[in-house]
């Protein structure tokens, strides 16, 4: 990769080599797997992605909130290289190793709450969510699972049932796992004017009591800020009220921090902003510098209620991924990554709020830390404008900036920059984004 720290476009995007690869791909890879940025990566460093045609793009997506420390953080690379040379796998369920134990020790410190904690390691976010449900069901002896409007949990059968959006995640893939109940969340832009977090929680509780009954509910699984749902930040007090209700009824409160976790929102975990201690926390994505690792960490009494041998999986807690996670945890602390996320927020928010003030299609700027989004609507209404979001993302891409869309209606532009992005790179990318947004008016 070139050492120049900037965006550089040598061809149209996608370029000729990317187009060649796209043709090979369509003859070999199922069309069922999509790519939102059809530019083939050759190399990536920090917040820059160099494609196979030599174009250098600025990445504001971090591979969907994974490469929080950049695409190839030197400390992660060193840890992975060192571990891979020693051994790549033994299977923790066969011959255990120290890295897994050490990750569990570190997570017990990092995850909110002073209580005794235990951890299981897995490979994907969906697996973490599935395991949290298994643990909650085993520990409570109940079956019901509450999930929120606009929530996202994954693509396995249980997590499809838990995911709100039909297309593309669920359509035609049923029947879905039973005993999953969807309840209203707090979505300040779209809730009745002035609805408080407590009122939104009361609406949720009413729906849950009426449809399921609190004594039938094993777990409430919720994202502190909804990721795929469009960076929906609930009204203040929502989480505290949910904590109170779940505790009162012995319902396991699972904070799904798969997208929000690991410094992204300006704290190591997004529930910290809510002042709430969940019973279980699910993690993946940013946990291991790009290596596939996931975890459930939570109350020891719940985690250990599962019979011995009841949780696991061949690849869960792979030693190379554990080494990457341990290196990442060092960097998060040493470089105070939560503070960097807050600094990114200050820089990005100022630019986005200025745009929102002059472009009527921008209904709201929201999020926390380096997890910020714009909701786009038809001016003067709250009608979601998916085409506008697609247009903005396409304009950004054509100018060498990777952005992602999100939301139940696909009308949200979400920004998840790697935290190692430099201020210059961020400003350059924001110039492109702001100009794309200005084209909407
Ligand atoms: N929980 C909160 O955000 C993954 C999905 C992208 P996996 N989000 C990105 C796609 O289209 O598949 C996610 C999440 C939350 C769970 C998951 C699932 O994590 O690692 O993709 O299984």
Please name the defining characteristics of this protein.
alpha/beta, 441 residues, binds ligand PLZ
In short:
This protein is of the alpha/beta class and 441 residues long. 36% of the residues lie in helices and 16% in strands.
Structural commentary:
- The chain is α/β, with parallel strands linked by helices.
- Helices cover 36% and strands 16% of the residues.
- Strands 4-10-9-8-7-5-6 form a seven-stranded mixed sheet, with helices on both faces. The chain has a four-stranded mixed sheet with strand order 1-2-3-13. Strands 11-12-15-14 form a four-stranded antiparallel sheet.
- It is globular.
- The structure holds ligand PLZ.
- Ligand PLZ binds at residues 64, 124-126, 129, 152-155, 223, 227-228, 256, 258-259, 284.
């Amino acid at each position: 990769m070139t050492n120049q720290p900037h965006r550089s476009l040598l061809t149209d995007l996608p370029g000729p080599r990317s187009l060649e690869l796209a043709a090979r791909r369509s003859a070999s890879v199922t069309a069922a797997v999509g790519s939102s940025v059809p530019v083939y990566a050759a190399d990536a460093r920090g917040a820059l992605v160099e494609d196979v045609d030599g174009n250098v793009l600025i990445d504001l997506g971090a591979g969907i909130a994974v490469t929080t420390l950049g695409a190839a953080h030197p400390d992660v690379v060193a840890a992975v290289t060192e571990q891979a040379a020693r051994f790549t796998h033994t299977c923790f369920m066969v011959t255990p190793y120290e890295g897994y134990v050490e990750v569990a020790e570190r997570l017990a410190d990092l995850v909110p709450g002073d209580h005794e904690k235990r951890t299981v390691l897995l490979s994907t976010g969906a697996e973490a969510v599935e395991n949290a449900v298994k643990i909650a069901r085993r520990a409570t002896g109940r079956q019901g699972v509450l999930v929120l409007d606009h929530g996202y949990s994954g693509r396995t059968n249980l997590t499809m049932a838990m995911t709100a959006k039909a297309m593309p995640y669920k359509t035609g893939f049923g029947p879905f796992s039973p005993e999953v109940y969807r309840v209203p969340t707090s979505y300040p832009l779209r809730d009745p004017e002035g609805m408080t977090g407590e009122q939104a929680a009361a609406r949720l509780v009413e729906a849950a009591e009426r449809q399921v009954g609190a004594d039938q509910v094993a777990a409430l699984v919720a994202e502190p800020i909804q990721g795929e749902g469009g960076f929906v930040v609930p009204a203040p007090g929502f989480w505290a009220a949910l904590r109170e209700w779940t505790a009162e009824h012995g319902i396991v409160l699972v904070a799904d921090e798969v997208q929000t976790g690991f410094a992204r929102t300006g704290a190591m975990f997004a529930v910290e902003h809510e002042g709430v201690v969940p019973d279980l926390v699910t993690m993946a994505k940013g946990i291991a510098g790009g290596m596939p690792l996931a975890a459930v960490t939570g109350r020891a009494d719940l985690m250990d209620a599962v019979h011995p041998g009841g949780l696991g999986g061949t690849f869960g807690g792979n030693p190379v991924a554990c080494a990457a996670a341990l290196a990442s945890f060092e960097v998060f602390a040493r470089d105070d990554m939560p503070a960097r996320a807050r600094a990114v927020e200050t820089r990005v928010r100022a630019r986005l709020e200025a745009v929102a003030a002059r472009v009527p299609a921008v209904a709201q700027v929201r999020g926390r830390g380096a997890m910020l989004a714009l909701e786009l609507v038809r001016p003067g209404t709250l009608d979601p404008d998916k085409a506008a979001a697609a247009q903005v993302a396409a304009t950004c891409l054509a100018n060498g900036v990777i952005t992602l869309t999100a939301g139940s209606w696909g009308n949200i532009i979400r920004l998840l920059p790697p935290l190692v992005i430099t201020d210059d790179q961020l400003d350059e990318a924001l110039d492109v984004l702001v100009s794309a947004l200005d084209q909407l008016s």
